[in-house]
Amino acid sequence: MRALSAVNLLEVWERGVEQHSVDRALTVLAACFGQTREELAQATVGERDAGLLQVHESLFGNELQAFAECPACSEHLEYGLPVRSLIFEPSNLEREFNAAIGDLTLRLRLPNSLDLAALRDCAEIESAGRILLARCIVEARSGDTPVPLSSLSDVAVEEAEQRLASADARAEILIDLTCSACHHSWRTILDIESFLWTKWSALARRLMREVHTLATAYHWREADILAMSARRREFYLDMVM
Question: What is the pTM of this model?
Fold first, then answer.
C-alpha cells in the first residue's frame, strides 16, 4: 500500500467529495493501492471492503471506533472493534461458480463495484435486489435447456441470493451489539466506505485549517505547509496558538 502525503490526502478528498459512494471507494483504493479504477471495479464487494479496511488501518490505526443507536430505546452507544479482526482472506474464493438448486443449475458471479453502480438510482431495496441478482446470474439451465431468469421461482431466487451472500463473507460485515441501557441485542451492518470517508473528510478539513492558520500567521504557501511533516506543522501551530 502506498504511503499518502498530506497533498495526496487532500487531492483524494477533493475528487471524492462530489462522487457517489461507489465511485468514491474506487478513488480511495486507486490512490492507496496504485491500481487502475477499471481493475479495482472488477474486485468483489468483499475484496473492495477488505481493501478499505486496510486503508483505515494504515491511516487511522487498528481501532475502529463507531456509534450506534439502540432500536429499542434509542440509547446512543459507542463501540470499538479491532480492524485486523475484520480483515481476513477467505479460502477458495471463486468469482464465478455453479449452484445446483433443485433441477436448476445456476452460474453465479459475485457482485462487484460495477454492479453496485447499476443500483445507484434504485429507491427501493427490493428492486435493487432484483437488479443485482439479474446481473449476477450469468446463466440458468435445467439440464441442457436454458431457463429465462424471469421464470425462476421465488424459492430459486432466494436460494441464489443466499449462495451469493455466503460465497463472499466479507461483502456484508455484521456487528453484534447489546444495549447497555435496556440490554436489547441486535445486529448492524458496518458500512466501511461511509465510515472511512467520514474520517478521511475530517482529516482533510483539519489539514486545511492548519494551512489556513499557518498561512495567515507566516504567509507561507499551501504547498510549503503541506510539504512539512505533521510534527513540524504541529510545532509551528503550537507557537501560533
Answer: 0.91
Q: Is beta strand 76-82 parallel, antiparallel or unpaired with respect to 96-101?
A: unpaired
What tens digit of pLDDT does each residue of 161-191 get?
999 999 998 899 999 999 999 999 999 999 9
Domain chopping of the chain, boundaries: 6-89+175-240, 96-167
CB 170 within 8 A of CB 182: no
pLDDT (tens digit, 9 = 90+) per residue, 105-147? 999 999 999 999 999 888 888 888 889 999 999 999 999 999 9
Q: Which of 3, 60, 34, 29 is nearest to 206 (CA)?
A: 60
**What's the CA gap between 47 and 114, in Å, rounded?**
13
Nearest to 73 by CA among 177, 176, 182: 182
Q: How far is CA 178 from CA 69, 103, 173, 197, in A?
A: 10, 42, 17, 26
Nearest one of 3, 13, 2 to 208, comparing CA atoms: 13
Cell 473528510 belongs to which residue?
201
